[in-house]
Design brief:
The protein is α/β, with parallel strands linked by helices. The chain has one domain: Carbon-nitrogen hydrolase (Nitrilase/N-carbamoyl-D-aminoacid amidohydrolase). Helices cover 24% and strands 27% of the residues. The chain is built from six helices and 15 strands. It has helices spanning 30-46, 81-93, 140-143, 172-180, 202-220, 270-278; strands at residues 16-23, 51-54, 96-106, 109-117, 123-128, 154-155, 160-163, 185-190, 193-195, 223-228, 230-233, 236-239, 243-245, 251-254, 261-268. α4 (172-180) packs parallel to α5. The chain is globular, with a radius of gyration of 18 Å. 45% of the residues are buried.
Length: 299
């Protein structure tokens, strides 16, 4: 294992990892939501998955559609009861898990947190969502403190996991720094959808989201996995379409827009080096000229 936390395969060697995506529709019944996630993990593992990713805040309905103090009661510590259930599932099925938790860090301090569980059930690492949106029915700034983990790579027995969360999807800096930390795959647990009354924008909104994900794969020579919610929650209709892109930008799998679905996809990590030696974007980066990125705006 190298200092970045990334695994160190031999150049050119095939190293196939079967990745499972569990796309679900949630209700107000928390126990039912958790049961369906655990069932999705079991289904993916039975189909050969070695790593399984769940959607953002999978244990409940998306809590941020209103600035409602009562929703803070849904938060819990990490580790805590929900991560313990994931730990049991990881160990039972022998899979690495990427989950998503409404984290209560301290009194009055909350995060939107991705957790990575090793196949033996141990907590391998956490990532706290760095970019926090504030839009109609996405009032996350009311609930979540911006993350302080930085952009990271978490070493597991299957691959180097690059955890990110939803709104992070729109930031090339986040994808770049996570890849530079050694991540072989960027994982985005996600809750994004269409808002009633904006039907004329729906196609463009979805296509923009999908294009950003594909671009992160190409620009960084990594696999990209995004697992999104589906189903309606109030005026939001989550658009599903969970997706896997190869480092070349090739579409490997895409879920339906409007139904729960479990997908298992073979990803050969040897494609990372193949892509990076043919499109050597990391070689040609002008790190001496990027200081302006640390400013809010240009001169």
């Amino acid at each position: 294992m190298n200092p970045t936390g990334a695994l160190s395969p031999q150049a050119g060697q095939s190293r196939v990892v079967r990745m499972g995506l569990v796309q679900s529709a949630c209700t107000a019944d928390r126990e039912a939501n958790v049961r369906q996630a655990l069932a999705g993990i079991a289904e993916a593992a039975a189909a050969g998955a070695e790593l399984v990713c769940l959607q953002e805040l999978f244990a409940g309905e998306y809590p941020c559609q209103a600035e409602d103090h009562a929703r803070f009661e849904e938060a819990e510590s990490v580790p805590g009861p929900l991560t313990q259930q994931l730990s049991v599932a990881a160990r039972q099925h022998g899979v690495v898990l990427v989950g998503s938790v409404f984290e209560r860090r301290a009194h009055g301090l909350f995060h939107n947190t991705a957790v990575v569980l090793e196949a033996d059930g141990q907590l391998a690492g956490t990532y706290r969502k760095m970019h926090i949106p504030d839009d109609p029915h996405y009032y996350e700034k009311f609930f979540f403190t911006p993350g302080d983990t930085g952009f990271c790579s978490i070493a597991t027995s299957r691959l180097a996991v690059g955890p990110l969360v939803c709104w992070d999807q729109w930031y090339p800096e986040a994808a770049r720094l996570t890849a530079m930390a050694g991540a072989e795959t960027l994982f985005y647990p996600t809750a994004i959808g269409w808002l009633d009354g904006e039907e004329d924008l729906h196609a463009a909104q979805y296509e923009s989201w999908d294009t950003m994900l594909r671009s992160h794969a190409i620009a960084n020579g990594v696999f990209v996995v995004a697992v999104n919610r589906t189903g309606r929650e109030g005026p939001l209709r989550f658009w599903g379409a969970s997706v896997v892109y190869a480092p070349s930008g090739e579409l490997l799998a895409k879920a339906t827009h409007d139904q729960p679905q479990v997908i298992v996809v073979e990803c050969d990590l040897a494609r990372i080096e193949w892509s990076r030696t043919r499109w050597p974007f990391f070689r040609d980066r002008r790190i001496d000229a990027y200081g302006g990125l640390l400013s809010r705006w240009g001169q």
